[in-house]
Amino acid sequence: MSAYRTYRWWQLPLNERGGGYSEREALLDWRVRQAVDRELTARGYAEDTAGTPEFVVRYSVRVREESTSSFRDYLAYRADGGGKDMGEALMGYAEGTLGLEVVDVATRRIAWRATATAVVEKDPNGKLIDPAVAEMMERFPATRR
């Protein structure tokens, strides 16, 4: 992964997608993206919005506890490069979980994944997002310059 230099977000920010997103959802989206962008920039990566980046970044938020033991979740897990045994995926997601994934563009496989629980609060100020993203990305390698 340290050979990568450029990235792009998997999807447009909520405020650019349109649709019925609440102000809280758009603010959460902005906070997560800002925190991840800051961490990636500090490690020497640059966002590529015009060409083909080496990897894409995506995130997910689980605001309530739920199981991932459905067949649909299993298929998604496998499509994202998971092994035959769902392992930790069967444990489900705790309330307020933030997940980050890096997907290699060339292989379309997950190259890195991290999660943090109890991050997304009912209070929309998002004060836990920055430290959670920083902790999640502590082991994310810096690019070779």
Primary descriptors:
alpha/beta; about 140 residues; about 20% strand; Rossmann fold; five-stranded mixed beta sheet; about 30% helix
What does this structure look like?
- The structure is a single chain.
- By secondary structure, the protein is an alpha/beta fold.
- The protein has one domain (6-136): Rossmann fold, CATH 3.40.50.
- It contains 4 helices and 5 strands, in the order βααββαββα.
- The chain has helices at residues 14-17, 23-42, 71-79, 129-136, and strands spanning 6-9, 46-47, 55-62, 97-104, 110-116.
- Strands 2-1-3-4-5 form a 5-stranded mixed sheet, with helices on one face.
- Helix 2 runs parallel beside helix 4.
- The longest helix has 20 residues, at 23-42.
- The two termini are 13 Å apart.
User: Can you list the strand order of the major beta sheet?
Assistant: 2-1-3-4-5
CATH architecture: 3-Layer(aba) Sandwich
Mean pLDDT: 78
Level of helix content?
25-40%
Rg, Cα atoms, Å? 15 Å
Task: Characterize the overall form.
Answer: globular
Question: In CATH's first tier, which class applies?
Answer: Alpha Beta
Topology:
Blueprint: E1 6-9, H1 14-17, H2 23-42, E2 46-47, E3 55-62, H3 71-79, E4 97-104, E5 110-116, H4 129-136
Précis, in short:
This protein has 145 residues and is an alpha/beta fold.
